[in-house]
Design a protein that fits this description.
- With 198 residues, the chain is an alpha+beta fold.
- The protein is built from nine helices and four strands.
- It has helices at 13-18, 21-29, 40-47, 57-74, 90-102, 107-119, 128-137, 149-166, 187-194; strands spanning 3-8, 32-37, 173-176, 179-182.
- Strands 2-1-3-4 form a four-stranded mixed beta sheet.
- Helix 2 packs parallel to helix 9, helix 5 packs antiparallel against helix 6 and helix 5 (90-102) packs across helix 8.
- The longest helix is centred in the N-terminal third of the chain and has 18 residues, at 57-74.
Length: 198
């Protein structure tokens, strides 16, 4: 069975816009998804990228046009300037890792719930109550937000190292058999690759 390594960031608007299309595509192709939440800002600093606030004005302006445009195209609610961004995305990532280790729920739904909380629901994913609500929505025990913090931090750091080593420089980022696909708008290309068409 083909495995897709999915590097995602809890604070990424583009991960939000990916929705659950990756999971739908994996179901169609019989692929499995290994989720690897990582620190995208740290990855920027190590791979030649720049955090959004430090980018040239032309890039900032383009992002301000492109994100709402993509959200409209996908029929997804979106707030370009959410009330709680940037915030500390690590606690949500640690809870995700705890859920991944515990099993019993829907990881794709959890990843989307966390991102949706930021970009469509005006919620702060650094708050325990928000993370617990996301866990519960995706079928996990909300108490997972309080467990495995050390292991979550270690895995989160390890995912960053693996991301940099694998050539990841943004999110969402998908890797299968050494082939890299960057961006929510590359899920169709990834599917065609899995079908042997690309």
């Amino acid at each position: 069975m083909t495995q897709i390594d999915y590097y995602f960031a809890t604070l990424s608007p583009y991960c939000y816009l990916a929705g659950t299309r990756l999971e739908q595509m994996a179901a169609r192709t019989g692929a499995t998804v290994t989720y690897k939440p990582f620190d995208i800002v740290a990855a920027f600093g190590r791979t030649g990228g720049t955090p959004p606030k430090d980018r040239h004005i032309s890039r900032i302006e383009y992002r301000a046009q492109e994100l709402p445009r993509q959200a409209k195209k996908l029929g997804m609610p979106f707030n370009l300037q959410p009330a709680h961004w940037p915030t500390n995305g690590a606690p949500a990532a640690y809870a995700f890792i705890a859920a991944q280790n515990a099993g019993g729920g829907d990881l794709g739904a959890l990843a989307h719930a966390i991102c949706r909380a930021v970009w469509a629901e005006e919620k702060d994913i650094a708050e325990d109550a928000v993370v617990k609500a996301c866990l519960q929505e995706a079928g996990f025990d909300p108490a997972l937000a309080d467990s495995g913090m050390l292991e979550g931090a270690e895995t989160y750091a390890r995912n960053l190292e693996e991301a940099v080593e694998a050539g990841v420089f943004g999110a969402p980022f998908y890797i299968v058999d050494g082939e890299r696909f960057w961006g929510q708008d590359r899920i169709e290309d990834l599917e065609q690759h899995l079908q042997g068409k690309l």
